[in-house]
C-alpha cells in the first residue's frame, strides 16, 4: 500500500469528464506533465484497470469511485472532485485506503443560484409552454396563469452555499423567502427559517431543493410531500436526482396539482451526450428539463479547475489536506531545506511514539511535526533535517511502513 518518493514527471494524473483546461494549466505550472485527459467518464471495470498506475484522479459528478475501484488503486494518493457533490465517491473506502478526497465547495454555487432564479421567472410566466407553442406555429398570447415573482413566497429546502445565495437574489426581485434546513442557519436579509418541511411545502409558491445526496434526503419529496404543496405551485430541483420521486412528480404535473417544474438532475442520467435521455417528465407542459448543467458555466468550470487542481498540487507537493472531505485536515508550510515524510495510519494509540522512536534510533533532527486524527484515521507529517542526496529518508520510510496499522506512507520529492 505504500508509495515511494517520485519525481514529478513520474506522477501520473488522470483527468476525466472534460474538466476545464485551467486544471491542466495549474498542474503543468507546478511541474506535473504526466497528465491523461479524457472527455468522458469510465465504467467501474474500465476504472479498475486504469487506476492501477494512477497517483491522482480528477472526476466530476458522473464517475462512480466505488470500494472496488479503490481496492484496485494501489498507487492512488488523492481524488479531486471538480464539482461540489462527493456522493459519487465511496468516501469511507477512500479513507480506509489512505486516499484523500477534495472538492470545490463554492466555485459553481452562483451559477446554480442564477439558473434557478431564471427558472422561477420563466415558470411563473408559463414561458416553456408558450415557447414550445410558438416554435410549432402557435400564438398563446394570454395572461391566464402567468404571475410576477414579486411578493411570491420562495421556499428553499437546504440553506447552504447555494440556497442562501439564491435567497439574496430572490429578495432583490421582491420575493419573500422562507427556508427549511435540518441545521439552524443564519437568515440573510428578510428570510425566515421555518420549523418543518411540511410547513414550508404548505406556504410556498415555489419550492426549490438545495440539499446534498444523503440517506436522509433520498426521495425527500415523494407523492405525499407533493400533495402538501399548494395547488398551482412550482417545484425546482437542481440538487441530486435521488431527492425527488420523479414518477410522482410527473403525476402531480399531469394532474395539474403543480403548475410547473424545473429539473436539472435525475435518478438516472445519460452517461454521455450521445446517450438518449429517458424520463417520465419528457413531453409534460411547463416543465423545464436541463441536462445537469446547474454548475456548467465557463466561469464556474474555470474556477473549479483552478481550485481543485491547486488542492491536488498542495497535497502532492506539501502534504496539505486542508478542506479535504474525508480526511484529517492539516495546513502545512512548505518544507524547503528538509525532507517531508507522510504517514497515514489507523487511529490507534501509540502511533506517534512508534514514529518518533524510529527518528530517535537514527539520531534524526525533526524540524517539524504535525498530527491530526479523526475517529478512524491518523495523519502524521514529519520534517527531517537530512540532505536531499542522503537516502536516510527512504530508510526511515521503510521502517515507518512496518509499523502495524500503517495504511500508506510516502516521502515527498
Ligand atoms: N445541478 C448542479 O449542477 C449542481 C451544482 C452544484 C451543486 N449541486 C448539488 O447541490 C447540493 C447543495 O449544494 P450547496 O453548495 O448548497 O451545499 P451546502 O452543503 O452548502 O448546503 C446544503 C444544505 O442542506 C442542508 N441539509 C442537509 N440535509 C438536509 C435535509 N435532510 N433537509 C433539509 N436541509 C438539509 C444542510 O444543512 C446545508 O445547509 C450539492 O450537494 C450538490 O449535490 C448541483
Ligand atoms: O456537484 C456538483 O457540483 C454539480 O452536480 C455539478 O456536477 P458536474 O461537474 O458533473 O456538472
TrEMBL record:
Its EC number is 1.1.1.399, 1.1.1.95. Residues 340-413 form the ACT domain. It is an enzyme of class 1 (oxidoreductase). GO terms for molecular function: (S)-2-hydroxyglutarate dehydrogenase activity; NAD binding; phosphoglycerate dehydrogenase activity. Pathway: Amino-acid biosynthesis; L-serine biosynthesis; L-serine from 3-phospho-D-glycerate: step 1/3. It catalyses: (2R)-3-phosphoglycerate + NAD(+) = 3-phosphooxypyruvate + NADH + H(+); (R)-2-hydroxyglutarate + NAD(+) = 2-oxoglutarate + NADH + H(+). GO terms for biological process: L-serine biosynthetic process. Keywords: Amino-acid biosynthesis, NAD, Oxidoreductase, Serine biosynthesis. It holds the Pfam family 2-Hacid_dh. Belongs to the D-isomer specific 2-hydroxyacid dehydrogenase family. Catalyzes the reversible oxidation of 3-phospho-D-glycerate to 3-phosphonooxypyruvate, the first step of the phosphorylated L-serine biosynthesis pathway. Also catalyzes the reversible oxidation of 2-hydroxyglutarate to 2-oxoglutarate. This is D-3-phosphoglycerate dehydrogenase. It comes from Pseudidiomarina planktonica.
Amino acid at each position: 500500500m505504500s508509495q515511494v518518493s517520485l519525481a514529478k514527471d513520474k506522477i501520473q494524473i488522470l483527468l476525466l469528464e472534460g474538466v476545464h483546461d485551467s486544471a491542466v494549466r495549474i498542474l503543468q505550472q507546478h511541474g506535473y506533465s504526466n497528465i491523461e485527459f479524457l472527455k468522458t467518464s469510465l465504467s467501474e471495470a474500465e476504472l479498475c484497470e486504469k487506476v492501477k498506475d494512477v497517483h491522482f484522479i480528477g472526476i466530476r459528478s458522473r464517475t462512480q469511485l466505488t470500494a472496488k475501484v479503490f481496492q484496485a488503486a494501489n498507487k492512488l494518493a488523492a481524488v479531486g472532485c471538480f464539482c461540489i457533490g462527493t456522493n459519487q465517491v465511496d468516501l469511507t473506502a477512500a479513507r480506509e485506503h489512505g486516499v484523500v478526497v477534495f472538492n470545490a465547495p463554492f466555485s459553481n454555487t452562483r451559477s446554480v443560484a442564477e439558473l434557478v432564479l431564471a427558472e422561477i421567472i420563466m415558470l411563473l410566466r408559463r414561458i416553456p409552454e408558450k415557447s414550445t407553442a410558438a416554435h410549432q406555429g402557435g400564438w398563446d398570447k394570454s395572461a391566464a396563469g402567468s404571475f410576477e415573482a414579486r411578493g411570491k413566497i420562495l421556499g428553499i429546502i437546504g440553506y447552504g452555499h447555494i440556497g442562501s445565495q439564491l435567497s439574496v437574489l430572490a429578495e432583490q426581485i421582491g420575493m419573500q423567502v422562507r427556508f427549511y434546513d435540518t441545521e439552524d442557519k443564519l437568515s440573510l436579509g428578510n428570510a425566515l427559517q421555518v420549523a418543518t418541511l411540511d410547513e414550508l411545502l404548505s406556504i410556498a409558491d415555489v419550492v426549490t431543493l438545495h440539499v446534498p445526496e444523503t440517506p436522509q434526503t433520498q426521495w425527500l419529496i415523494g407523492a405525499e410531500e407533493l400533495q402538501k404543496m399548494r395547488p398551482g405551485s412550482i417545484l425546482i430541483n437542481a440538487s441530486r436526482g435521488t431527492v425527488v420521486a420523479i414518477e410522482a412528480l410527473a403525476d402531480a404535473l399531469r394532474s395539474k396539482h403543480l403548475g410547473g417544474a424545473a429539473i436539472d438532475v435525475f435518478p438516472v442520467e445519460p452517461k454521455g451526450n450521445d446517450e438518449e435521455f429517458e424520463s417520465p417528465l419528457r413531453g409534460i407542459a411547463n416543465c423545464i428539463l436541463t441536462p445537469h448543467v446547474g454548475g456548467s458555466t465557463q466561469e464556474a468550470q474555470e474556477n473549479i479547475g483552478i481550485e481543485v487542481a491547486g488542492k491536488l498540487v498542495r497535497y502532492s507537493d506539501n502534504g496539505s489536506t486542508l478542506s479535504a472531505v474525508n480526511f484529517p485536515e492539516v495546513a502545512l508550510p512548505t518544507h524547503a531545506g528538509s525532507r517531508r515524510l507522510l504517514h497515514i495510519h489507523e487511529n490507534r494509540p501509540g502511533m506517534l511514539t512508534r514514529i518518533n522512536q524510529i527518528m530517535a534510533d537514527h539520531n534524526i533532527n525533526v524540524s517539524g511535526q504535525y498530527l491530526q486524527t479523526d475517529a478512524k484515521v491518523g495523519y502524521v507529517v514529519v520534517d527531517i533535517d537530512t540532505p536531499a542526496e542522503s537516502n536516510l529518508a527512504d530508510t526511515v520510510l521503510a521502517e515507518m511502513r512496518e509499523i502495524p496499522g500503517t495504511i500508506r506512507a510516502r516521502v515527498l520529492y
